[in-house]
Amino acid sequence: MARVAWHDARVDDRSLVDTVLDGDRDTFRSLVEREQVAVYRACLRILGRPHDAEDVAQESFVMAYRALGSYRGDGPLGGWLMRIATRHAFRRLGQRRDAAELNPEIGLSAPASDPLTALLSGERERAVRLAVAGLREPYREVVALRFFGELSLDAIATATGRPLNTVKTHLRRGLERLRADLGREVAA
Amino acid sequence: MSRSPFDPSEVDGSLDPRDPAVEELERYATIASDQAPGNLADRVMSAVAAEPTPRRGLMAWLVTPPSAGRPFARFARVTVLGATLVLAVAGALYAGELARLVRNFSVGSTPQPSPSITESFEPSPSQSISPSPSVSPVESESESPEQSGEPSAAATATPRQSTSQPSPTGSEDESKSPSPSQTPEETDTTEPTSTST
Hints:
The complex is a heterodimer. By secondary structure, chain A is an all-alpha fold. Chain A has a single domain, classed as Orthogonal Bundle (Rna Polymerase Sigma Factor, Chain: A), CATH 1.10.1740. Chain A contains 8 helices and no strands. In chain A, helix 3 packs across helix 4 (77-98) and helix 5 (115-133) crosses helix 8. Chain A is globular and about 55 Å long. Chain A starts with 12 loop residues before the first helix and ends with a helix. Chains A and B meet through helix 2, helix 3, helix 4, helix 5 and helix 6 of A and helix 1, helix 2 and helix 3 of B.
């Protein structure tokens, strides 16, 4: 049985969105406050830089606000938002990788007393990020939504409009490819 | 651990619980912060304040302004919509033309009105023919008062004569009539003549 993520808490998102579409921006603020932790965390896990993650999370919410009329209400709003955010974060990551790496990523984990340990830990985190970012679609999206966005497979299926079994297959194949990529990274 | 740790049973148990990729991802997920920046909601709302109220449905998709990093997004949307409309119209026209060609082809190869006539008229000559050779000509005369009391020989002759009759109307039937006495074509040609006579 699939574990249910916290995003799946049944709230009548459709009615909240309708309220926003009727011009009530305070309702949108409550939606932002409800989802901001998950969205920011997913962006941080993808990008590895708090400042970038904050920018991308903010832009994702604005993008979601603009496109709110296209939300059909057939799944939790958190999944819909998370899909926008992860896509935007990967897009930003691609732009960043295209540009020169002037500002190296910092490690997300707590600073270690030993500099060598901190360095190794940071390298390992970077390897995971790059391995996930290097996956082909749709595997990358499913892996990111499940592990970085912490959505349940049901929520991913609803958010992406794919059958649940297809999502399971994508996740399994994504993990297989990730295993091979991470093995190469570790060996290198 | 992350807030909703991965369970291999989610993918129907086909994964090893100690899968190294899952372990790496789970370990990585635990280290990212669980707290959003304090002013994120304020920043979002100040950015949203400059935005118009979002629209619903298809208009939301069309009218949504492109994001900063995608200046050609609206152009791409309109292009996609236009291309879809053009394709739909072209597809409808092509389908109509194809249907017309198929209809013409089927009409040219097999004449449609004749089979309906043959089915309705075929039994009557065969019934009148079959008793005539077996039974004496007297019976056949008495049985068919409508056909001017002609004997069975006349009845058997009429189909073959009639096969030669349609030749002025269609050359295809003439080529078919000398060929073996196939029931469909021959009866096709016989019936119009029998009805006309």
